[in-house]
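Let us work through a complete example step by step.
Step 1: write down the sequence.
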Amino acid sequence: MASSTAFGQTANAPIAFANEDAIVTSFVTAPNLNTDTNGSPPGEPGQWLKVEFHYGTTPVVTSAYPYVDSAEFKVWIEGLDQFAPNPTQPSGKGVAVALTGSVTYINIPMGKDIYGVFYVHPSVLARYSTDRGYEDFDRKFDIHIEAYVGGVLVDEINKNKENDPLKWFQPLKPIPSLVYRQDQCPFLISNPDRYPMIKLPAPAQ
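Step 2: predict the structure and record it as C-alpha cells.
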C-alpha cells in the first residue's frame, strides 16, 4: 500500500490506494440480457469502460475489529464535450469535462487487496470522446479517485498523474450521473464476490 507520505493520504488512514496499478481501465461487453421476443437480431454489442481501483484497509477502531464499516469513493473521469458552445480548448473545439460518480461500500474487510469498480455506458464514451473515439478513455484521459471515511478525505489517486497538488480535475466542467455503480448496470451479475457490499440509497419518504 501507499506510504503515509504518499500523495493525498492522511496519517493512519483506514484506506490506502495501492502504489502500482491502483486504477486499471479496460473495455468490456455487457452480459447478454436480451429479452426481445420479436425475433429482432441483437445490435452490435457496445464497449463499456470499466474502471477498477485497488486499495487496502487498516481498521482504526481496534485491532480486534477487522472491518471498515463504510467508505465512499468519488471518481472524476476526464472527457471532452465536442459539441459544447463556446469551446475552451486550444484546438478551438470542445470543452474539457469530468464525468463524475460515487459508490459507498460497507463492511469492508481488513486486507491489502480490496477492489472497487465503476462503469461508463458506451453511448457516454462516444458522446464525450475526441475524434479518435472511445479508446481515448484508456490511452489519453486521466481518472481521479478519492476515498472518504466518516466524511473525511483519507486518500486519493490519479491514473496518469501520480502527484498533482493542483488537482487537474477541479477546473473541468462536471457532468454528473454518467458513471455507474455496479448495481446500476448489467454488470451487477459479474464478479459478485470481488467487491464489498454496496450501500444502497435510502428509500424515498
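Step 3: interpret the result. Residues 15-31+44-185 form one domain.
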